[in-house]
Structure formats: structure tokens, C-alpha cells
Amino acid sequence: MSVMNLDKLEVWVRAKDFAVALYKGVVPYLSPEEKWNLTQQLKRAGH
């Protein structure tokens, strides 16, 4: 399966929607330090 087909998977679409909702609903309320920590954790998770 190619990467281009991921957007057809319901689990992928739902996970992406959840991530966007979380980012818009939670991140604005975090302190700058917490935002930085979250960014660092996301970077580590991506490696």
C-alpha cells in the first residue's frame, strides 16, 4: 500500500481528525513551557 492510499483508511482519517481537534482544543491553553515539551515529545516520537 502506498502512502497516497492512507487517506482512504478510516482509522487514518479518524486519527488525523483527532489530532487536529486535540491541537486546536488543547494546545492554545498550554503554557509556553508545556508547548515546548509537547513539541520535543512529538519530535522524539517521529524518529
List keywords for this structure.
2 helices, about 45 residues, mainly alpha
Describe the protein in words:
The protein has 47 residues and is mainly alpha-helical. Helix content is 66%, strand content 0%. It contains 2 helices and no strands. The longest helix has 17 residues, at 10-26. The chain starts with 9 loop residues before the first helix and ends with a helix. The mean pLDDT is 83.
Give a concise summary:
It contains 2 helices and no strands. With 47 residues, the chain is an all-alpha fold.
How are the SSEs placed, and which strands pair?
Layout: H1 10-26, H2 32-45
Which sheet architecture does the biggest sheet show?
A: none
Number of helices: 2
- Give helix % range: 55-70%
Give the helices and strands as they follow along the chain.
HH
